[in-house]
Specification:
11 helices
Length: 266
Amino acid sequence: MPLLERQEQVSALAGLLRRGLSGSGQLAVIQGPAGIGKTRLLEETQRLARGLDAEVLSARGGELEQGHPFGLVLRLLEHRISKASEDELAILFRGQAGFLKGMLTGSWSESTTAVNDEFALMHSLYWLMVNLADRRPLVLLVDDLQWADEQSLRFFLYLAQRLQDLPIVLAAAVRSGDPAAENDLFSRLMLQADLSLRLQELTVDGVRQFLQASLPPESKPEGLVEETWSDTRGNPFLLREVASTLEHRQAAFKVKLFRPIRLLTR
């Protein structure tokens, strides 16, 4: 399904990626209510980033995982680190990043490392990002940031304040109106954003295009446009639900219509 009425936002993100990946790191924040298409826009950002030969790491916040310190940041990194060879690990964990090696490779020892030193962990995470970006421009995509644990949120703020000379782009999606996103850390992170996008619902014309692209021609969506827009107010998630329901109803109608013919041909 093509992105509808999001061309301006896609163009802005494409420009941000070009600037950020050339060495002037950037932060983008995508805001909007549930179902408005934030995840879809992050997916488009990922597609654009890969077209620019960037490495892309992604993770999603979880409402039930907010109590795990640095949990969201570690999800961003764990799969990437697990794929690295020993030679690459030596490069990625060189210098200050070495503090983290045990945590991310499974050999963590509380007896030998100050695991409660939050600043040391953030500083080490920062240098791991720097080392990753030295090998290949880096894009970090974070969905449902409103559910990030506090320590991960602190790290994203720490990183955002140091992006200026790095080939790193951090793009995060936040559900607006969620109480979890109404705190000082989020406010400070928003102030760091180089690009802030607040997504709006689709217009009536956008709903028409959506239905035309989603339903077969015989469904004749033209007569459904106004009613569908009124019911969904142009929310893409609700539109997909409506389109799915219409498709199922049409399929059921066809079965009922052709069943007598099948019986006569037996």
